[in-house]
Amino acid sequence: MRMSTKSPQSKIYKTRKLKGKNFDEMSVHHRQELIHGFDQKRLSDLLVLLVGAGGLGGEVAEGLARKGVGEIHIFDSDDVEITNLNRQKFFRRDLYKNKAIRLAKNIVKQATGDSVIAGYPYRIQEAVMMNIIPDCDVAVVLVDNDDTRAFCSKLFDFPVIFSAVSINADRCYTMVQVSGNACYRCVIPEPKGESEQRCYLPSCIDVNKLVAALVLYAIDSLIMDRERQWNYKEINLGGFLQDRTEFIEKNQSCPLCGRYSQTKYYKEISYEKRIHNNK
Question: Where do the domains of the chain lie, and which CATH numbers do they carry?
């Protein structure tokens, strides 16, 4: 496990690859390995950092576990509430407990391969200050807070995937950020209502399933030969607006990755570290 520091409050689980009872049975991953360009070994060696364990994070985590991803590290400081149970990977027994810890435990039974599944009860900003971020291959940011998205966009130099849903739960987008190309803020300079207001918004499970499909495919496209000709994809369930599939270019005036953004950002990070260290 590629960890920098073990958190005393984290929960880490290890699973074993499922095997049939008969000696001549196919591998549990055989059917997905038949897909053109699919590389199970790359998937089995992959370490994914998952920021957010709510409705979107739970669907993505289950998909990763079932596909046999090597390591899934989940970060979320929120607790499970009763209104989460209709669309998130939690049960009555999980109520009022930390989401990241409970999600890690719940998806263990969904895993099909030799996997490490870990939950951390912290915001990603706190985890960075505590130096407990694992050495990842890809991060998936599925939070309802734009400040956290911007933080992850600027901080990580490995691929980062962002997804969010509309306030009416009828539209979603997925954006893929790769070093040297457009960052999150290049693509979405002024977020407009994509789950920006935290908690107690209209929500249901439908669009969460769609987000998971986009994210899981995007991850495959980053590590194996599954083609993707977009870095921004938006799907509208109602059909009143057109879907969008685009490859958006880097914006030199971007407030996060543009040529004049570096000094301001690092001053902000330095300030956050000083505040944390003085607590």
Answer: 11-253 (3.40.50.720)
User: Residue 14, CB half-sphere, CA atoms under 13 Å: how many?
Assistant: 1
Tokens coding 36: 């053109």
- Tell me which residue of 158, 251, 257, 236 sits closest to 194, measured CA to CA: 236
pLDDT tens, residue by residue, 149-172: 999 999 999 999 999 999 889 999
Q: What is the pLDDT of the chain when averaged over all its residues?
A: 88
Q: How many CB atoms lie within 10 A of CB 267?
A: 10
State how far the Cα of 46 lies from the Cα of 150, in Å rounded to an integer: 24
This prediction's pTM: 0.88
Distance of alpha carbon 7 from alpha carbon 132, whole angstroms: 7
* DSSP H helices in 5-132: 30-33, 40-44, 55-67, 99-107, 124-130
Distances (CA, A) of 207 to 52, 152, 196: 16, 23, 16
CA distance 25 to 33: 15
How many other C-beta atoms lie within 10 A of the C-beta of residue 77? Answer: 16
pLDDT tens digit sequence for 11-24: 999 999 999 999 88
